[in-house]
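$ run holo --ligand "S-adenosylmethionine" --emit tokens
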Amino acid sequence: MSRGPLNDEKIVDSWTKNASPWIAAIRDGQIESRLACTDGAIVEAVLSCSPKSAVDLGCGEGWLTRKLEDQRVDMIGVDVIPELIEEASRIRPGDYRMASYEDIAEGHLNIKVDAIVCNFSLLGKEPVEDVVRAARSLLNQGGSFIVQTPHPVFACGDAPYRDGWRRGSWDGFAAEFTDPAPWYFRTLSSWVNLFIDSGYLLREIREPVHPESGKPASVILVAGTHT
Ligand SMILES: C[S@@+](CC[C@H](N)C(=O)[O-])C[C@H]1O[C@@H](n2cnc3c(N)ncnc32)[C@H](O)[C@@H]1O
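-- output --
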């Protein structure tokens, strides 16, 4: 387990505190890069895998779950924060479940789907590594695991380009946000190796470019099971 002020437990604490402003931020379209680039990119990446069913891990208030349902994908949404799962179910009743990545790694999510999608929701260290490894057993044969995360080269900032815990920040977000979650920075090769070492085949890497800055807003990894 990670110790010190930057650790996996702190991530869940922070999301518990910030569930309400997060719900408002998504409802009111407060995150410009999502509207301009990354929302469309993740929907397109998932649909390119043609899944009939999928699970949205770390679904938050469920916007992506609803968006993919609208595209006729049978969806399950999973998150550890009760307020987010309640909001998702309130906006549109569906198959929402409350579970942490730790729960999933321990085998408490008994489902089989064609795709797993994580949109900016793989934030920590051990629980992320454990859930990625364990999630293979949730996939039907030929299934896909699609992850969108900030592009490491651009999210790195002035710190050295190597894996490690980073302090979070709500810069650019509404004043209601508090106590930002730390996050575990991974280089691009670490993301790739996380999937390969967990027994997946890396099928594709996408780098959605923000239309105004001309820089990658994120990276999307599409991994699959070996057939
Ligand atoms: C940046 S939000 C993204 C939410 C959603 N995927 C979206 O695109 O709006 C990160 C999400 O990951 C969830 N999360 C973080 N750590 C988690 C864990 N250990 N188990 C389950 N969910 C977790 C948080 O509760 C939060 O909803």
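-- notes --
Residues 16 and 81 are 6 Å apart (CA to CA).
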